Amino acid sequence: MRIKNKGLWIVLFTMPCMLLFALVYAAPIVTVLYTSLCDYTTFSGPVFAGVKNFVNIFGDGDFLESIKNTLVWVLLQSTFHVSLGLVMALVLRRKPKGWKVARTAYMIPNIVPTAATGVMFTLLLNPAFGIVKPFLEMIGVEVSQVPNLFGNSRYAFWTVTATWIFYAGFNTIIFLAEMGAVDKEIYEAATVDGASPWQLDRYITLPLMKNIFGTCVTLASVAMVSQFDIIYMTTKGGPGNTTLNLPIYLYKAATLENNYGKANAVGTVQIAIGLILVLLIQRMFQEKREQGEKKR
């Protein structure tokens, strides 16, 4: 049966999704962009003020520090974190002895809410009753006073980083799913030709993971641009601005200063950074894919 007016039917079937997108995403984004150009507080409605809010935030050292911290975390998340997920997937794919227990243990931290993870680490590393001092004493290190790892500017950034960077279970799941889609006959043929397990991973598995690696890098980068709860629950951006990132800076502008115009200007910058990162990552992996195709 031939369907007439295909274009009309396409519009009708996509209209609910487009309306939902407009209400949930497009309208709030447009509102953020507009109010970022306004004087807008709890006690006054938005009044257009041009780029005043952007001039103020880019003249603030804390804001610039928040951008730096955010980008450093993006770099760590998109390199070490994703790579760790790939390594774990390569190990689990071989199904070594005890692999089911290891897989379960490795995945458990990823199903715990990040806010709960932040509270847990705050208690575990508490200098008064946490596990740091007993652990140091157990390994023979005598300490008179345990440093506050979250409250010391020397350790805070890397302590916060350690609360999430090893939990790459989500990336591991994605890599395992992609590895499971590879035709087993390819591995069997290579094994018959005398390829070692390392060579199978080096010349078959890893090249086939390039596309999904790019996807994981994109997801990891965007996640770190919007990371809020675990930082808020551990340090609230302190001490000073040591662990301050864009979402925490935005939160403080909106709740502590009651300056919604400034907060939305930060949100606009956050959106722009996220878009730029996505485009750069896509372009980088697209160029790598094209180079690989030329070599073949």
Key descriptive features of the protein:
mainly alpha, 296 residues, two-stranded antiparallel ribbon, single chain, 71% helix
Report on this structure.
Helix 3 runs antiparallel to helix 11 and helix 11 (about 210-225) packs antiparallel against helix 14 (about 260-295). The chain is flat and about 75 Å long. Strands 1-2 form a two-stranded antiparallel sheet. By secondary structure, the protein is mostly helical. Helices cover about 70% and strands about 5% of the residues. The protein starts with 5 loop residues before the first helix and ends with a helix. The model has no long low-confidence stretch (mean pLDDT about 90). A hairpin with a 2-residue loop joins strand 1 (about 40) and strand 2. It contains 14 helices and 2 strands.
- Uncertain runs are none
Order of helices and strands: HEEHHHHHHHHHHHHH
Structural class: mainly alpha
Strand content: under 5%
Q: Largest sheet, if any?
A: 2 strands, antiparallel
Q: What integer is the average pLDDT? A: 88
Distance between the termini: 44 Å
Percentage of residues in helical conformation = over 70%
Gyration radius, in Å? 24 Å
Q: Trace the largest sheet across and list its strands.
A: 1-2
Task: Give the SSE map.
Elements: H1 6-35, E1 38-41, E2 44-48, H2 52-58, H3 61-93, H4 99-111, H5 114-124, H6 132-138, H7 156-162, H8 169-180, H9 184-192, H10 197-208, H11 210-225, H12 229-234, H13 246-255, H14 260-295
Helix pairs in contact: 1-14, 2-14, 3-8, 3-11, 11-14, 13-14
Short description:
With 296 residues, the chain is mainly alpha-helical. It is built from 14 helices and two strands; from the N terminus they run H-E-E-H-H-H-H-H-H-H-H-H-H-H-H-H.
